[in-house]
Specification:
Elements lengths: L1 E2 L5 H20 L21 E2 L4 E3 L5 E3 L7 E7 L4 H17 L4 E7 L5 H11 L4 E4 L2 H6 L5 E2 L1 E5 L4 E7 L4 H12 L19
Parallel strand pairs: 1-8, 5-6, 6-7
Antiparallel strand pairs: 2-10, 3-4, 5-9, 9-10
Length: about 200
């Protein structure tokens, strides 16, 4: 399992060559405008969302926590570890999201993948002032979610318990906020599947 940090050297070299080619082309007046990529959707369309796998894991007090406990809420499910640099960058965002959106039906749930268990996790949680529930995971838990090969890996789950977006490695804060805010909206508001004016029920 790897922490996603630096891009491969090959990618850096490739990017450098592309930049040089662009400079040369500009000088020769031969540059053509590349088509703009469509903006990335904050969340998947309803039809593309699959149910988030159920699990039972224990928190620091030994209490069993199930994903079903969060039914009806938007959940940010974060696979992380104390040794993961990008995880440490994202966690303060999640602390703020928990504080900002909790009263709107949102929860963060952290799944620690530390081999040292609570011995490593408990002091980290205290130092980072984590205000959301953290449970201890394992490879079997990761396998339920398609195999967690890199940390952080984060899933944003809608109120119906379906995976609405997946973020592998360090993502932008805005990507998370856009997904959370869209999923917290009342049904049909701002949804890509919402019916337009004059639409007939059932059509």
């Amino acid at each position: 399992m790897n922490s996603v940090n630096n891009p491969p050297t090959k990618l850096v070299r490739t990017a450098g060559r592309m930049a040089l080619a662009l400079i040369v082309s500009v000088g020769l007046g031969t540059v053509a405008c590349a088509p703009q990529e469509p903006p990335r959707k904050a969340v998947k369309d309803d039809k593309d969302r699959k149910p988030a796998p159920e699990f039972e894991l224990k928190d620091a007090s030994g209490k069993v926590v199930k994903l079903a406990d969060y039914k009806g809420k938007v959940v940010l499910l974060d696979f992380w570890a104390t040794w993961c640099g990008p995880c440490a960058i994202e966690i303060p965002w999640f602390v703020e999201f928990q504080r900002k959106y909790k009263d709107q039906g949102f929860e963060v749930l952290g799944i620690s993948m530390d081999d040292d268990g609570w011995k490593a996790v408990t002091p980290f949680v205290t130092a980072k002032k984590i205000n959301y529930r953290v449970v201890q995971g394992n490879d079997a838990t990761g396998d339920l979610y398609g195999g967690v090969e890199a940390l952080p890996t984060t899933f944003v789950i809608d109120r119906e318990g379906r995976i609405a977006s997946v973020h592998i490695g360090l993502s932008s804060r805005k990507d998370f906020e856009d997904a959370i805010e869209q999923l917290l909206q009342p049904a049909g508001v701002g949804s890509p599947n919402a019916a337009g004016p004059g639409a007939k029920p059932g059509l």
